[in-house]
């Protein structure tokens, strides 16, 4: 982890961001204008085509839970973010 931010809700130039991997380039939060930080996220499981066909419902559930986990991690390292900030970050190509 490169950036560390512990936010107490107060405005401070030195903030410890736990769970932040790095700053996301030029992306800024839409409502606050603060930089967007990439959160450390979990890697998705490796799944074969046969397994996907056999357990389609389980795969959909796993993808939903991974997306929820990514959203929560993003929100933790980007206080004041809104859903649109997450969508922009999650949709952008990796650095």
From TrEMBL:
Domain Rab3GAP catalytic subunit conserved: 17-95
Alphabetical list of InterPro entries matching this protein: Rab3GAP1 (IPR045700), Rab3GAP1_conserved (IPR026147)
Origin: domain of life: Eukaryota
Pfam annotation, one family: Rab3-GTPase_cat
GO molecular function terms listed in the Swiss-Prot or TrEMBL record: GTPase activator activity
Protein name (database record): Rab3 GTPase-activating protein catalytic subunit
Higher taxonomy: Eukaryota, Viridiplantae, Streptophyta, Embryophyta, Tracheophyta
